[in-house]
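TASK: fixed-backbone design
INPUT:
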């Protein structure tokens, strides 16, 4: 996509070279970049009182009005937009194909150190080497990690927005801003016939020294940077779809302020009985609007969800699929495509036979959650982490309960709402849990870990089942 744009945005960050890029573009007749028009602190500059006939107060009240005036102004106009600028215009510019996206990046370590120096000296631009200020800040490892996470999130958000809208941007690195050829290529992308003969000389490099000489604690910086996972090798792949909050599954008490977000297929009969006895009955099947009304009527309410060991949950799903007629088609597919033996109806199958069938199911589960099967990724066997993230889209639960400590945890939860009630009674270990103990093995544990790796790592579960399994059922 080249030309056809009515305006442009430089999507950058502090200390990436955006000032120099802007000055160079502004050399071209008919092209104007109006600085940081949507910086919440100022209006494109600390001494600028108005832009396109609007002052800062008017812009803050209606940023889209300023954006519209920029679009309608003569020539090709644009501005610089950073991750901390007015979020109300972000979606408008990212989804507008008439807006040319210039995406400027820089090595984040260089940017961060440059930012530390600028903050220490108070000098954000340099045009005269004789007035240059020098400082050696202390590198802050924690601060750099926060900076890096924010920068990555910003860039990933831009990329995602362009991908889903079928657009492309013009990508530049810090060094590219120094290239006449690259800048002229950018102008061609913008649909501008003219080019530049040189890079703007209004600005000079502020800190030309080697990176190691710019901070007072180079050795500490080197150690911190060595521990950064630049390639994302520690990232856990996630191919699951984003889950909704599952509000219709929510269970609330009629009188008390207790709200429960179930994680299927957990056998939670004891929890529901406890809520009924403690809170005067249950309210179920609510819409989001209905649940908001319930929340509004019960200030001080508390919400919770219950997690269990991933292996235990996988086995509960396995048994549900074997026993529920709704999954007859899936059972057939597991038998024909994944080698899962058909287990006899009624009674307990042979231990070895059931273990083999469960292992086949776990292999399917891993492939399915990695997006490698034609079977839809059902909420019944979705990772618990994805279900938690879905809940958080509506309202994150106050307490994430582990099934092993459910009695004490829910008694505490009730106390927070003013109820002096013991938690639900934990009975004998269920037959299903006895059966899981019988078929478990190192191979089974490894297969469950392969299927639910994110739950194990990010929710803190060990491979082996806990010594004591709750008797809730």
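OUTPUT:
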């Amino acid at each position: 996509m080249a030309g056809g744009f009515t305006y442009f945005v430089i999507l950058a960050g502090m200390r990436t070279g955006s000032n120099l890029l802007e000055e160079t573009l502004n050399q071209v007749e008919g092209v104007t970049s109006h600085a940081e028009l949507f910086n919440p602190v100022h209006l494109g500059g600390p001494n600028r009182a108005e832009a396109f006939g609007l002052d800062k107060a008017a812009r803050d009240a209606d940023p889209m009005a300023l954006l519209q005036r920029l679009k309608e102004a003569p020539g090709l106009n644009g501005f610089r937009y950073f991750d901390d600028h007015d979020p109300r215009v972000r979606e408008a510019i990212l989804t507008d194909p008439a807006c040319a996206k210039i995406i400027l990046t820089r090595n984040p370590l260089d940017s961060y150190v440059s930012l530390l120096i600028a903050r220490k000296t108070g000098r954000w631009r340099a045009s005269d080497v004789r007035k240059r200020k020098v400082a050696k800040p202390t590198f802050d490892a924690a601060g750099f990690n926060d900076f890096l996470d924010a920068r990555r999130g910003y860039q990933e958000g831009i990329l995602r927005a362009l991908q889903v809208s079928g657009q492309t941007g013009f990508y530049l690195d810090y060094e590219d801003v120094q290239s006449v050829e690259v800048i002229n290529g950018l102008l061609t992308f913008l649909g501008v016939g003219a080019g530049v003969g040189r890079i703007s000389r209004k600005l000079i490099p502020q800190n030309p020294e080697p990176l190691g000489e710019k901070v007072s604690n180079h050795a500490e910086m080197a150690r911190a940077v060595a521990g950064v996972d630049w390639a994302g090798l520690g990232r856990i792949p996630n191919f699951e779809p984003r889950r909704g909050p599952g509000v219709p599954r929510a269970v609330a008490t009629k009188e008390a302020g207790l709200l429960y977000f179930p994680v299927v297929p957990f056998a939670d009969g004891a929890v529901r009985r406890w809520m009924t006895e403690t809170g005067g009955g249950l309210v179920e099947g609510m819409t989001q609007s209905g649940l908001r009304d319930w929340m509004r009527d019960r200030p001080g309410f508390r919400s919770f969800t219950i997690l269990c060991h991933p292996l235990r949950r996988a086995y509960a799903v396995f048994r549900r699929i074997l026993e529920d007629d709704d999954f007859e088609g899936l059972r057939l597919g597991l038998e024909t495509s994944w080698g899962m033996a058909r287990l006899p109806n009624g009674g307990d199958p042979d231990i070895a036979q059931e273990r083999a069938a469960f292992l086949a199911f776990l292999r399917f589960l891993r492939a399915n959650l990695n997006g490698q099967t034609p079977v839809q990724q059902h909420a019944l066997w979705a990772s618990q982490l994805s279900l938690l993230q879905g809940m958080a889209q509506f309202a994150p639960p106050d307490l994430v309960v582990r099934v092993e400590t459910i009695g004490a945890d829910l008694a505490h939860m009730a106390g927070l709402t003013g109820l002096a009630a013991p938690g639900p009674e934990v009975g004998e270990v269920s037959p299903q849990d006895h059966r899981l103990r019988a078929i478990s093995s190192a191979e089974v544990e490894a297969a469950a870990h392969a299927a639910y790796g994110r739950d194990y790592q990010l929710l803190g579960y060990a491979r082996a089942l806990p010594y004591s399994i709750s008797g809730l059922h």
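COMMENT: The chain has two domains: 7-226, 238-473.
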